[in-house]
Specification:
five-stranded parallel β-sheet; amino-acid biosynthesis; Thr_synthase-like; Shikimate_kinase/TSH1; Ser/Thr_deHydtase_PyrdxlP-BS; alpha/beta; six-stranded mixed β-sheet; globular; about 50% helix; about 725 residues
Length: about 725
């Protein structure tokens, strides 16, 4: 085994003089000495016996950054090129490459790694080390691998300035860019932590980012969650019951009835970090953003990559996943309907089931409950039905929807998506009843305890009350902005507005979170249909359900009066005042209304503006847009289009969220386009739309689901809590017992 004595930078202060200085400082300035000692101890405990292993392409700055990090930590610094390979081979790396060729060089390089051992050091790998599997496995046993992620264009520019025109693995006919892209798969395989290094970022800054990232990696206890209704004094008394990402994914709703939010907020990206993602694919952007929102102790980067790849790989028909399309003037459409069930819900619900399956304990079965106003149901059922067979045996899902409150196509789709571990139940009421009932079930400790003891089954939530549902939505709002920059519509830093059809407030909340994380969103426009409680609230600060009846509309996914995720936003603008949030929602529950204080309303109106759209205007917008552009809006997007036309000031681009494929709303589309007499059978409606060749094709996944036989079979339940609980117990007995 080769033990390398690494080069260490000269120190300006000798050990004896340093001891003398520390003693004098301790006597004269004890507070300052304590701070310095704490910093020194923190730095040294950061490494311990582990190595910090810097990995990345040639030109990423690994050697320079490694030396700076080593100086800051006062630990050995090892450069694999200089201190291991050239010492072992007694020749330069370039000479060795020329001597043995590409393939043999990688093998020789890997053998040298296998013979190398050290601890408590900062190690700078070569750009090609990660291509040798056995060597990297050996290195990872005692190290934290930090990937210096530098955009390919930046790397190529640096290599050009260094007059490097050939690297390991490159051969005639293969460009430098191609080999750099090829190597990325190996970097992504091995890293524990990613550090974004875009543009002309200084090595000192990268070194600080490395240290911060390692500290985060080793301190998962810093990323805890709290309830929107918890008091500050209560939090300090509950340190022994901290909630982490895995906990909130599993539990869904907080025990006090509130919603979980990260105690220290969401991570902020610098402008340079966002800009480094401009050239990235959607999946790459999702990976980077979610790594910063989910601690690796909950889901390691490699597992997260696997989940994201599974969610957005073959299940989406558009390679761009969430493409941005120019509509007209300064308006752009963010198309969120290319997933298997044709709505924006797929972005979260192709991913959340796999996150859930990874996070839950193996010792218990789980029944996931969900309430839907239309699109969530089929997305949840489809997502959980794609789990591995072993996971489907211990995870089932039950979807409650208003029996007469969704479109015929949505109902047929939900019923058609039923699988061996996924069922739908129609409830003779509206969405608000379904959602409230689920919340009451979760907070009924006697009932949930009974299910656990009697059946070994715990309950979980898949509605947007579950924190994990929101994170994938942040990604597509950020990605849409980056796409506009990539298309040269705007330079990075220029603002955009977003307009989102809004019911439960989850989608628009995700846009607000993207803004907090550094995406230059100016205003979020909240678009309602005739159930316009949110419009009134944003304009007046009064949330008033008294005398309101839910109105069935052509846009059923936003036929909602009680917007659950609004609670998270109010908690945010109220500076995490859980007592105030509790007071507001108790008043809403008991009296049917609440009113914001003036200062909170002013904060809210800095972020939000709101408007609503009538049924007539919704259909007229569909007809007008098709007549002028040939594009068909679904009814929810049409609501947003109408509101955007009224409220935008045209001083910046506006991104309208297109939340569903038009074929999900076939009767309304047929009526808006004045095509023919509307037939009642959902499949006939889709065939009728398909028969008109000028129209874009209907959604493939929707058509296939509706073709399935027996999709009219489902259970129907009265609007009674006892009946809902009975259905839950029956499902548990049938599936798990």
């Amino acid at each position: 085994m080769l033990h390398v004595v690494p080069y260490q930078p000269l120190r300006l202060i000798t050990q004896n003089s340093l001891t003398s200085m520390c003693f004098k400082l301790m006597l004269s300035r004890p507070v300052a000495f304590a701070q310095i000692w704490k910093s020194w101890f923190s730095s040294h405990s950061l490494v311990g016996n582990k190595n910090i292993i810097l990995m990345g392409p040639p030109g990423a700055g690994k050697t320079t950054v490694g030396r700076i990090v080593g100086q800051k930590l006062d630990c050995p610094v090892i450069d694999i090129d200089d201190d291991v390979l050239e010492t072992t081979w007694n020749m330069s790396v370039s000479e060795k490459l020329q001597d043995v060729g590409n393939e043999q060089f990688l093998e020789e390089e890997g053998k040298a790694l296998l013979k190398f051992s050290t601890s408590g050091s900062v190690i700078s790998l070569t750009g090609s080390n990660p291509m040798h599997s056995a060597g990297m496995q050996h290195m990872k046993k005692n190290g934290i691998v930090v990937y210096l992620d530098v955009p390919t264009t930046v790397v190529m520019s640096r290599l050009k300035s260094m007059k490097v025109d050939r690297i390991v693995g490159q051969s005639p006919g293969i460009s430098l860019k191609d080999i750099l892209q090829f190597r990325k798969q190996f970097y992504k395989r091995w890293y524990d932590i990613r550090v974004l290094c875009g543009g002309d970022i200084a090595a000192e800054v990268v070194a600080e980012k490395v240290l911060d990232a390692v500290k985060r990696y080793q301190n998962s206890e810093l990323e805890t969650f709290i309830s929107t209704r918890s008091s500050r004094s209560g939090r300090s008394m509950e340190q022994d019951s901290c909630k982490y990402f895995s906990d909130v994914v599993t539990e869904g709703l907080a025990p006090d009835g509130g919603l979980f939010v990260p105690e220290r907020g969401l991570p902020e990206f610098t402008a340079g970090e966002w800009q480094s993602l401009i050239e990235a694919t959607y999946i790459e952007r999702a990976q980077v953003i979610l790594e910063r929102c989910v601690h690796p102790a909950d889901i390691p980067a490699s597992k997260l990559a696997e989940i994201i790849g599974t969610a957005y790989g073959e299940n989406f028909t558009c390679s761009k996943i969430a493409p941005v399309r120019h509509l007209a003037g300064n308006q752009f459409l963010l198309e969120l309907f290319h997933g298997p069930t044709a709505s924006f819900k797929d972005f979260a619900l192709q991913m959340v089931p796999h996150i859930f399956a990874y996070c839950i304990p193996r010792s218990c079965n789980y029944l996931v409950l969900v309430a839907t106003s239309g699109d969530t149901g089929s997305a949840v059922l489809d997502g959980f039905s794609r789990l591995h067979d072993t996971d489907k045996q211990r995870i089932a899902v039950m979807n409650f929807f208003p029996e007469d409150g969704v479109s015929p196509i949505q109902k047929s789709q939900m019923i058609g998506c039923q699988k061996e571990n996924a069922w739908s139940v129609g409830v003779k009421s509206d969405f608000d009843f379904c959602q409230t009932a689920i919340k009451q079930i979760f907070t009924n400790s006697d009932y949930t305890g009974f299910l656990t003891v009697e059946y070994g089954t715990a309950l979980a939530a898949a509605n947007s009350i579950n924190w994990a549902r929101l994170l994938p939505q942040i990604v597509y709002h950020a990605s849409a902005y980056l796409d506009l920059v990539h298309q040269d519509i705007i330079p990075f830093g220029s603002p955009v507005d977003v307009c989102i059809p809004t019911g439960n407030f989850g989608n628009i909340l995700a846009a607000l979170y993207a803004k907090m994380m550094g995406i230059p969103i100016r205003k979020c426009i909240c678009a309602s249909n005739e159930n316009n409680v949110l419009t009134d609230f944003v304009r007046t600060g009064v949330y008033d359900l008294r005398g309101r009846k839910l109105i069935p509309t052509f846009s059923p996914a936003v036929d909602i009066l009680k917007s659950s995720n609004l609670e998270r936003y109010l908690h945010l603008i109220a500076n995490e005042d859980g007592q105030l949030v509790t007071q507001l929602y108790n008043q809403l529950e008991n009296q049917g209304h609440f009113q914001l204080q003036k200062d909170l309303l002013e904060k809210l109106q800095q972020d939000l503006v709101a408007g609503w759209c009538s049924e007539e205007d919704c259909l007229a917008a569909i007809h007008s847009v098709y007549s002028t552009t040939g594009y068909i809006l679904d009814t929810h997007t049409a609501v947003a289009k109408v509101v955007a036309d009224r409220l935008q000031d045209r001083t910046c681009p506006i991104i309208i969220s297109s939340t569903a494929h038009y074929s999900k709303c076939a009767p309304a589309i047929l009526r808006a386009l004045r095509i023919a007499e509307i037939k009642q059978n959902p499949l006939s409606q889709l065939h009728l739309l398909s028969s008109y060749s000028p129209l874009p094709p209907v959604h493939w996944g929707l058509l296939e689901t509706l073709k399935k036989k027996g999709n009219e079979d489902h259970q129907v339940c009265a609007a009674d809590m006892g009946m809902l609980m009975s259905h839950i117990e029956t499902l548990i007995q049938n599936h798990f017992m």
